[in-house]
Amino acid sequence: MKGIDLLQKHTASAVVIRAWFLEKMIESLQTSDVPDDFKNMMRETGIEDDKLAIMIDANPRMLLDVFDDNDIIIENSLYPDGTFTIKIGAYDFTRPYFTRKEAEAFAIEAAFEILENKLSPKIEENN
Length: 127
Description:
The protein is α+β, with helices and mostly antiparallel strands. It has a single domain (3-119), classed as 2-Layer Sandwich (Double Stranded RNA Binding Domain). The chain is 56% helix and 13% strand. It contains six helices and three strands. It has helices at 3-9, 11-28, 36-45, 49-58, 64-69, 100-119, and strands at 74-78, 84-88, 91-97. A three-stranded antiparallel beta sheet has the order 1-2-3. A hairpin with a 5-residue loop joins strand 1 (74-78) and strand 2.
């Protein structure tokens, strides 16, 4: 699934991820002489989904820190036969992937779903 699709489908997760990226961008400016007004303008403007989606598509691995910060730990294992498997917290996905990128793309999509479930209020049925 493309980054833009993940952001649009998982709106609560998108808010968390967008805020995380924005703060990391602002933190990276701390060492330079960037005025606070500019940093505040960045916070007010935010990151547009289409720009964030490009970063996700180009390097989904950068989301691992976001998920770590939200207690969604992604482990990637390489087996002797050259295949990769993914474990996300208590969820063990044993399907083999032939490349690390393919395994991580699956993991990011699954982690979006897990984060969305953590952030979204549960609707209880009245019986």
